[in-house]
Design goal:
Largest sheet: 5 strands, parallel
Strand content: 5-15%
Distance between the termini: 5 Å
Mean pLDDT: 92
Low-confidence stretches: none
Number of helices: 10
Length: about 300
């Protein structure tokens, strides 16, 4: 197996050689329905302090398909309600034999602080934290694009538009980090309040506040939902105005001369149908959304194998 860091807390934890091997393994797993029991006698635990559908279920199903025992921890109803710290919770899970722990947490520095708290025997994988990063989502997004273009090297020079609540999006941060390393040219489009402070001149990113202009000469579009749970619309003039000017819909894509017979539209989910993305496009031939979900399972299977069996 490849040499890989014990934890995956950021897309920066993978070099390009590791990334290529990860994608090759993901494609192999996707091409077969015989996965073996390579992780038999191993225990994978999902520890989610925030709600999730796609990420949590794909981690748990990935573990089961590889023969591992998959367990799930929820803060509600646990000793967290009695004051148990994250470090104490994870120490308990380690003592019970957990080999790999997938953490989702509202704090942006949760996994980094946890990794530094003590020498761990288990491996940590960030499943999305605060507004910092969501590395496995970016990896499955990149793998989906890799499939569409036919290889990692062919991503260089492709143009991706990210539209939506970029300020609060951990998905955007991880995708920007990862895809720019792969040579993808990234354009960002959002109301000014949704364009974060970390975007500076010289970043190599294009910024645009007019969606109709932003859609021109683009290969792929990644749509993000406004994150109401992080106060998105406490900062804007309102939801109706946002939908009017920033909803991705068929009329806008056709006006930008995008070929709707080709797959190019991504969304990490959940989709607010009829808001940031018109409902008709979710299952349109141009949509990669269901493929992203499916790829998330195989990508996380490959990731578990490469971390645990290193």
């Amino acid at each position: 197996m490849i040499s890989m860091t014990k934890h995956l807390l950021s897309v920066d934890d993978l070099d390009l050689t590791e990334l290529e091997r990860l994608f090759t393994k993901t494609a192999q797993l996707k091409a077969t329905d015989h996965w073996g029991e390579e992780l038999a006698q191993k225990t994978i635990c999902t520890v989610f302090y925030e709600s999730s559908t796609r990420t949590r279920l794909s981690f748990e199903l990935a573990a089961k398909r590889l023969g591992a025992t998959a367990i799930s921890f929820e803060s509600k109803g646990s000793s967290v309600e009695k004051g148990e710290s994250l470090t104490e919770t994870v120490s308990t899970l380690q003592a019970l034999g957990t080999n790999l722990l997938c953490l989702r947490h509202p704090s942006s520095d949760a996994s980094q602080n946890l990794a530094k708290a003590k020498p761990w025997k288990l491996s940590l994988v960030s499943a999305g934290e605060g507004t910092r990063e969501h590395p496995t989502q970016a990896l499955l997004d990149a793998f989906t694009l890799y499939e569409v273009v036919g290889g990692l090297s062919k991503l260089a020079g492709k143009k991706l538009l990210i539209v939506g609540d970029i300020t609060n999006s951990r998905v955007a941060k991880s995708n920007i980090k990862l895809l720019t390393r792969l040579g993808v040219k990234i354009r960002l489009c959002a109301p000014p309040v949704f364009l974060p402070d970390y975007l500076s001149e010289g970043s190599g990113l294009e910024l645009e506040t007019d969606l109709d202009l932003a859609l021109k000469n683009i290969d792929f579009v990644l749509v993000l939902r406004p994150q109401r749970e992080r106060g998105s619309f406490g900062q804007t003039s309102g939801e109706a105005e946002y939908a009017k000017y920033y909803q991705v819909n068929r009329k806008r894509l056709e006006a930008a001369r995008m070929d709707l017979s080709k797959a190019f539209l991504l969304h990490p989910g959940p989709v607010n149908a009829g808001f940031e993305l018109s409902a008709e496009l979710i299952y349109d031939p141009c949509s990669l959304i269901e493929r992203q979900v499916s790829n998330g399972l195989y990508l996380r299977m490959a990731l578990m194998l490469q971390i645990i069996l290193v």
